[in-house]
Amino acid sequence: MNIDKVKNSTLSYKGFFPTLREQPQERENPYALRDDLIKPLPPEGHLVHTNIFNAPKHMIDGFVYDMKALKKGIDGTANDHELGKLNNIGLVTGGAALATYLTTRKVTASSKIMEFVGIGSFLASMAIWPAVAIQLPTKLIHGFNVRQRYKDSMDREKMFFNDPQYIPWDLYSEQQIYKIGDYMGVPRDMNNRRDYIQNRMKQIATQDNTLWMLSAGFAVPIMSALICNQLEQPIKNLCGNIRSEQNKKILSKALDVPYEAEHSDVYKRLDSLLEMHKGQPVSRELVNQISELISYNANPMVNDKLQSDLKALLTSDKTVLEPQDGNKMISILRANLSKKFGKDTPVMKAIMPDLHELDSWLHEGGFIGRDLNKADFKNLNALIGKKILAKLEVYNTELPENERIAKESVLIALNNKINSKSAVSRFRVVRPALKLDENMQGVLRALAKELLTVDNKINVVKDYLLKELSSAEETKLANIWNKSQEDIFKALNIPWKDLNKARGNREMMNQVVRSAMDRIAADKTEFETVMGKLAEIAGRMDEFEGLLSDKGNVTFFEQTISRVLNPTARKLSEMGFEETAHALAGGKSNSEKSVLKAYARNRLMGVKSTLYRLINSLDMHRRLATLTNVNGLLGQGFCREVQEEVAELCKRNTLFAHRSDFAVKFYFNGNPHPNYADTSNIEVRNGKIVNKYYKAGRAGYQDVSSDAGMYKGSMRLMFEDPMHPQSDTILGSELAGKLKKYRQDLFSILGDEWYFIKPDAYMTEGKVLQAWDMKMHPDKPGPDNPNYIKPKYKRSPNKFKFLMTGVSLDDLAMKYASKKHNARAWMKLFGGLGIGIFALTVGAQFFFGKAPKPKERVK
Amino acid sequence: MISPIGNDINNKNLSFTSSSKQEKKLDYSHDTLLKNNIITRTRIGFDKFTNALTIYPAKGITGNRNSNFYEFLTMGMIPYVAGSAMLMGVFNLANKYYSHFDKSKAAVVGRKLALGVVFFGLAKNISKNFVTKPVQYITGVDTELPYAKVNYELPDDINDTDVVSIEYHKVFESVEFPRWDLLYGDDEKGEVRNKYYDKIAKKLGLAEDLNDSDQDVKPLIREIVVKSNMAKTISSYLWAATAVGFAMQKPWEGFMNNATLKFWKKEKFKQTISSFGTAAKESAKLFYKGEGHGIKKHSGKLMLGISALATVLGVLNVMNYSKKPDKLDASNVIIPSEKYEVC
């Protein structure tokens, strides 16, 4: 056999499939002799075992394989296995594209991240579900990996049991199979043991694969949703914290690094404008252009002041004459006179001054080189008239009497209105006295720089405030409050069953919240725990505020605002821009500084008030439970029935009253004719008030809110009587001080004993004056009038009252409960469903692999 | 392992037996090429779907030895359908436990996401035609060409005579082992043997009177199939993602609030259909034009553009055969001085 001939034959070409169509059939197979070709190559297939150590490499290898598959797909040379891999690539690409698209529609960082988490968790669930619900249980129950992977000789990784009709059993050694058989409990002395074990494995694998297909559709979406559900809050918190830190960094960087105003567009335009008009008088047009560039549009009030300051700097009501004005004056004179005397007539020649002459007149009159006002121009006009008349006199002397020209006609001609200019303003050149000299340029540049800098920094501060404090999702304040809310209800330890039931019903929620409060107040240790927790939350809030205690009640936010605005204001007032400086950083409530500070303060106050109110409520309940520091209740000489009513009213108000309840009056249904005879003190048993008389909703009860005594007592009990000593100890002196101030403020703004009907009421001896009365009052007095009645309460804007009262506990509880209810309802439904599917999937596997054992062969 | 097949082997319709009367009862007695038209596709789809929900899981869960890879793959429909339904459920089912306000809020999001799930499935399947149809038009190769495969199973027991199962495959399902044989004409019926390959050769610009058009065309067809499969797979996911983005548009909210699937309520159903058109139009506009500014405004356009681009590039890639017809001459392919090995 001529091997070379065979080698040189062009029987076939090296293609995907060797074609043998030209192979001479009658001859002996030529390849049989070729040991370099015919020898069956040893198979290189092997099982693939992954563990956490080689998993990363395995993943990377897989990725590389996928990429190669993509390349081959594009080239058109991919095989079936590689084409299958493209499905994964498509899935991930499509998922990523979708997540990216949805991301662009979301605003906050965490919601953007959640889009990717959503897609990612879905893909992950697709991989995790069969591993956890099928692979692992089967491994434990039947002792083998049903999702075993192997690589064939072509290095293609496949699932071992994918195709039940083609399982490469030879990859398992005898030993491995027998080990599995032992685990399964297959008798060791069985005939064809390996066959039997393999069959059983195959059967289990087929069943598992089917189970996988049946369960995945239900399990994967639930699993993915559960993952998202669990990750959402941590991601939100993380994003919030990261952002807050970033914000702080951005802020301090922006504030420390000087802003290079010179590079800003506005400054460049101003600079070129100033260069162009250098040394020139400041015309009105130029003033307009400058004030357009130097402006403070962020705050119209500041801008108004700035513009008026600028105008004062740049304009003057005085003008100045310059040498070139001589020509103009001469031409005006000529125009006026020639109408009467004709051009180039002898008269004209005689009486018209030349430039030199005019110049000497002006010098003589002292009109050159100084600021001229309106009166000066009157004088100037008179002087020129006089001089021309003098020249006319000279001219007339040379003429016969009858040809002489009358003075009057010259005067009339001189004062003729030309171009509707009066005689006075005729020579008045519209040229401002001010020149854009270097000094002025310097001032304007410095001003522009200062304003641009402050504008830039204020924007950074505003942005910072917005991100930290605004009422949007993911601000630091919102995150802190969400956490605080969670902690508060955890501390109050209200059974979820009750909260859930009452979540849509205010009446029910009132009862739930109230009984919790009574319970806590009655028990010393529980009270201390809860108060301690509330103190901790308050401490966290203070930390967030960045309270600078040594400088008084100034928060980090307020300090930052002052830090930006004060230096600028100082510089501006040094430059003479007093008004602007005041508008920017003055003490008035509408200055830029106050507005910004108020924003920061109010946002914080609203949140803090809610917490302080809760502390106060709890403290009052404790005071009532122990009858400590209850002067408002016992020290007012109330009879027992009224005492009971006051206690009831105060409990309701501290827990449930809204701002409107405080603002109008305390509606309260009580007994209009209490039993005054019983002057005993209210009874407290086991920390709970035992009512002898009062019973809510009793027939005959009326609104008794016009009872001034009761009102006074209530206000004192709620806000004036000192806190319980236990509270003082737990809160610590600093926090207790703040609480004290908060209570005092409420006492005075909600109205002390002088005010209890309407917020706009004044009180004289024994008579309440309504706002209407005040207008009509015969002695409507001013402060200097001896009859002046000083308002007995502090007038506060409603917004302030609103912020001070905070959110009532029942509102808080309802919102909290319904939010939690939704989350729990969802979790209950799908968590339950998920567990059910998992249990079913795992449970089914116990019944798998019941292949009948082969009958013993009868020998 | 040898299974008992009974004594009366001739009464069973096995592939190696001669044809019998029984054949007439069956749709197919041998692997049969089918026409790729809407009727066949629907029939195949229905058949596969019902099997996937009934026979195949029943066989699989009992570990039947005749369960095969085809059945496993066909059962892949179950997670697809169940998963879609479940996804809709995840977003909507819990709503009824919420308070009224929360319910309405959650329902808006939930319904839109449900719509997204439906659109995903529709777009993924419809968009495959964006690749396969142009490819078929240009090259003449129908990559989706179906055939019915007659599968002879092992009998479950000695009395089991129902051993035939029909599977629906595609001729080019495997690029390594395409069913070339099905594409040959039947000499006995007077058909030209290479009829199909001649047609493709002509369409691809090869000569019309090739001796062995099949041998010349097969590598080309394989390349076309690989490339179009790839384009189809990748682009269909992009189209599906685009469809979800489309479903997320605001105009759908109004539609979903009033829509009903209760076709027996004539008026309301009619209204639903007409308002679907309006909502689709408005949403398409909004999706394309975008809102806001920057990337947010253009993201919809971008998404659509990328999907379309993937499709167009995919089809162009198919048209760009690496082996141009002129190179196919044996004298070009085989260089006499080279030594060739059969491997």
Key words describing this protein structure:
heterodimer, A: 859 residues, mainly alpha, 3-stranded antiparallel sheet, two-stranded antiparallel ribbon, B: 343 residues, 13 helices, 56% helix, globular
Explain what the structure shows.
The complex is a heterodimer of chains A (859) and B (343). Chain A has 859 residues and is mainly alpha-helical. In chain A, 62% of the residues lie in helices and 3% in strands. Among the domains of chain A are: 194 residues, no CATH class; 82 residues; 108 residues, no CATH class. In chain A, the strands form five sheets. Chain A has a three-stranded antiparallel sheet, with no helix packed on it. Chain A is flat, with a radius of gyration of 48 Å. Chain B is mainly alpha-helical. In chain B, strands 1-2-3 form a three-stranded antiparallel sheet, covered by helices on one side. In chain B, helix 9 runs antiparallel to helix 12, helix 10 runs antiparallel to helix 11 and helix 11 crosses helix 12. Chain B starts with 21 loop residues before the first helix and ends in a 10-residue tail after the last helix.
Count of β-strands of chain A: 11
Uncertain segments of chain A are 1-34, 418-422, 755-778
Overall geometry of chain A comes to flat
What's the pLDDT, averaged over the residues of chain A?
A: 80
Distance between the amino and carboxyl termini of chain A:
53 Å
Order of strands, main sheet of chain B, comes to 1-2-3
Outline type of chain B: globular
Largest sheet of chain A: 3 strands, antiparallel
Please tell me how large the radius of gyration of chain B is: 26 Å
In terms of quaternary structure, the protein is heterodimer
Mean pLDDT of chain B: 82
Number of helices of chain A: 30
In what range is the share of β-strand residues of chain A? under 5%
Number of helices of chain B: 13
Distance between the termini of chain B: 32 Å
Structural class of chain A: mainly alpha
What percent strand of chain B? Answer: under 5%
Biggest interface: chains and residue counts?
A-B, 79 and 77 residues
Structural class of chain B: mainly alpha
The share of residues in helices of chain A is 55-70%
